[in-house]
């Protein structure tokens, strides 16, 4: 077996990065103990880096009807459907931590229909997967199926936007052959 | 027939928007003569609005091996594949203008393989469509197929990022049932 | 960009055609102001030309529960699903004229679920698309879904036959790389 | 088990049919010993009946590079792919007779890649199946793959037109739940 | 046309086989009058042969809510969906015999929705086809749809296990290009 | 979140099992420290249990050109494609142990094209995935693609048979909602 590099594209040195991007990366490193490769790979394009993480934060650090674990669960399920190794491994780790459940990420990544979910989570992922895989058919019935579980229209936007944003991220990661950091595999399994 | 509203979600009044967002929208209105509905629909979420258009500009107004017409052509072809009415109609108009060709958008939206394209454009869209529809299978052979047409690795990133970003946009527009402005249909057909 | 020819196959001169075919073509030219390319391309095979247009007229000029606009709407929606550039562009023009609606064809071609349709038209296109894409699964439930909108069994036959006939036409046009006449793009947009 | 009727739609009595249609049906009955149900089902719509069989004859009784067995083989393979019970059973019988081979129809209907075919027949069916299943991607390479086997451009038209015409027929038969006559099952197996 | 061999892999001589395998094959030959090719092809791997037929017998010769004809019907329908020529031809013959119906196998192989089935058989095949084609989505609703027709949970296991086992068999037969014996084509048609 | 039971079907008590099955299960328990749930779930059907594990052992404990890690890698890749949670989690653990690589299972399960594989392993999985997903199109070219990597025809059989056998297992596990033991998630990650 041969280890793939972080990305098919050039990966800049931290020292060469614009100050704001370097600062964000160092902050992540300090918090996590390592630099997730998506930061290094996207830093090759500073303007896209800034927009990507601004969008990411707007969706993932927002208040609302979805918990942080809910949001990560959407990422893992849709990234599995899009066969994105980086996102499943990296966000699988975050999901385990957020949900305080060492099993849930591997379950959801392979087949959320067979995972340890309650009815609300199942409905959330049904909606997210439809956005990921056939958004052009989403309609009134899909919104109606969310309502009995307490999801508002704003929550539906959140679910859809997370599925759509990570659909973009999944495509970028697959094109770049973005490599998940080794550290992610064990996080949250303790 | 009954006209659909602009969006399934609430559309804010201009007067209620944060100043920076209102300014951007008024600038677009001044330039185009009308406000494309995507601005109004996304303004419902100011943070997402800012990130979306920052990302959009980073990809679509960038210098590089792709012309502005090339970039719009990628948007139209992939939005057709994703069945996104808003993006096909709105970016079809921009493509007609950028390419100074009143026919090309309708051709590319339905079947780019039968459109009036040269070999370079065909290779560009083959790559973009693979990113849109099965990015997990993109590999060395796909990059190799771009090279003989003069596309650099940076150009390949651009093609992929545009296809991925509008894949997100297509999903959001389909979930919101975003309505294309009537004005787009005739633009660039003269 | 390079313009494609009318057809991948030989296109006969009008003077060389059998009298009945030439007469039909000249009649169309007189009425429309130009000769739609499908007439010229199919004239390469006179017997097939005669059968094709006899079938076409039997379905499209028939009396019944479907208006002429309804019939063209079926053609545009299913031709979009079959990625047939000629049929979307040519019948899109006719649909705009028949429906007296300059927007409807572009909407229906990309995603009829997001078009300005009433419930009756939506049910009609749901049925037509199922015939186009998975006719082997059509059954009682599909006929039952048409009835509340006033469609009779004969109307169901009409919808199905139009979807099936243009499914043939779409395949022929794609194999021949049939080029839509430039004139179609602007018709009915005024 | 319960026998399905001939068609979901009304089936006219012979005595009620226009003279030309009755004459054609009686001629088929005299030659075959029974009336294939497709004649009775389509007679419900005399104009469509006439156009359908005119088209059928133009494609199936034409001279050219394809033998009658070749033509029936295309029908059986593509009708299998379209899950059309009537066409597989009825044209399977005709194929057995035309090819003087009692096994070939059942082989081709299930998986032509594993049937007793030579290279020329395999190339013919590869082309026909692409027309049936994804005609929008047919291009130069597909025509080039036919040439080494002696297929002319006119032969390619024939293959494509037969696949397209029976694609229509398959859809009509599936919508009507057209029942194959019991007689077909044993024909040509002797 | 050229006849394919029995299998792409070596086919052992009866004399070279382990005694238990030879005995089973001779017993089949005595009962059927010929040796079905699947026995010869799998005998290339004695341990797999033994496990395969032990599994086969456990599923197909079991008592329970499914008749022998029901079991063969599941095999034919799912093997048609998997495009397995050997299994459709061989088990089609057995189905005709078990069901005492010379038409049913050809009907079910092409499109079970249009076959001469009662509601119970239709529900059984709906379930079996879902297992064959998208088992990861099978859930409570699918079991609930079986119950009104008198199928127990044990019957559901049987249906699923037969569909799954022959899904394996279909894949092996397609990889080996396993040839159906000529004798099967006519069995049960009398 | 709510934990799913081991299986949708009854799970027998060890004491109630036939002696040979109980012995096998106890042996596994002694070796592994726990009883993998697939043993308990399949013990509900003793004859199927015996045939299943006889087949399993014939394929997975065989000598030949494939290492034990190779065989597990095929299981994980194809089980991921079939969305089988049990097989991905359980055989992912075994793959980590056999390959002495704590990362490889998660990589292969999501997208083997982006995993740390050499050319030989990639070719092996290309073949296995084609068997899992479209075995009816496997042909000479697929065998030819294996040969340069040193795979013999017998190795090809092994790859295909493992993909086919676990395709059956994946379907059974999905129908039974078979739950992976908690122990598997951490095995081989150390």
Question: How would you describe this protein?
Answer:
6 copies of one chain form a homohexamer. Chain A has helices at residues 19-32, 37-42, 46-60, 68-81, 85-99, 104-111, 119-134, 140-146, 153-176. Helix content of chain A is 63%, strand content 0%. The longest helix of chain A has 24 residues, at 153-176. With 190 residues, chain A is mostly helical. In chain A, helix 3 (46-60) runs antiparallel to helix 9 and helix 7 (119-134) packs across helix 9. Chain A is built from 9 helices and no strands. The two termini of chain A are 27 Å apart. Chains in contact: A-B, A-C, A-E, A-F, B-C, B-D, B-F, C-D, C-E, D-E, D-F, E-F. The interface between A and C is small, with 3 and 3 residues.
Concise account of the structure shown:
With 190 residues, chain A is an all-alpha fold. In chain A, 63% of the residues lie in helices and 0% in strands. The longest helix of chain A is centred in the last third of the chain and has 24 residues, at 153-176.
Note the main attributes of this structure.
homohexamer; 190 residues; mainly alpha; 9 helices
Layout of strands and helices, then pairs:
The structure is a homohexamer of 190-residue chains.
Chain A: H1 19-32, H2 37-42, H3 46-60, H4 68-81, H5 85-99, H6 104-111, H7 119-134, H8 140-146, H9 153-176
Count the strands of chain A? 0
Total of helices of chain A: 9
User: Span from first to last CA of chain A?
Assistant: 27 Å
Radius of gyration of chain A: 17 Å
Oligomeric form: homohexamer
Strand content of chain A: under 5%
How would the global form of chain A be characterised?
globular
Runs of chain A in which pLDDT lies below 50 for 5 or more consecutive residues are none
Helix- and strand-based class of chain A?
A: mainly alpha
User: Into which percent range does the helicity of residues of chain A fall?
Assistant: 55-70%
Strand/helix succession of chain A: HHHHHHHHH
Query: What does the average pLDDT of chain A come to?
Result: 97
Q: What is the largest interface, and how many residues per chain?
A: C-D, 43 and 42 residues
Task: Characterize the main sheet of chain A.
Answer: none
């Amino acid at each position: 077996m041969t280890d793939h590099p972080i990305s098919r594209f050039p990966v800049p040195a931290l020292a060469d990065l614009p100050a704001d991007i370097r600062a964000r990366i160092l902050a992540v490193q300090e918090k996590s103990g390592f630099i997730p490769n998506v930061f290094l790979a996207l830093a090759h394009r500073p303007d896209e880096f800034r927009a990507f993480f601004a969008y990411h934060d707007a969706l993932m650090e927002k208040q609302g009807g979805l918990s942080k674990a809910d949001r990560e669960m959407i990422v893992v399920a849709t990234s599995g459907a899009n066969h994105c190794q980086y996102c499943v491994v990296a966000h699988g780790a975050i999901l385990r931590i957020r949900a305080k459940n060492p099993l849930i990420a591997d379950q959801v990544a392979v087949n959320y229909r067979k995972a340890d979910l309650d009815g609300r989570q199942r409905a959330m992922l049904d909606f997210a997967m439809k956005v990921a895989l056939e958004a052009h058919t989403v309609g009134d019935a899909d919104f109606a199926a969310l309502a009995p579980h307490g999801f508002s229209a704003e929550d539906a936007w959140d679910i859809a936007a997370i599925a759509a944003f990570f659909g973009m991220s999944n495509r970028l990661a697959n094109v770049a052959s973005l490599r998940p950091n080794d550290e992610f595999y064990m996080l949250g399994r303790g």
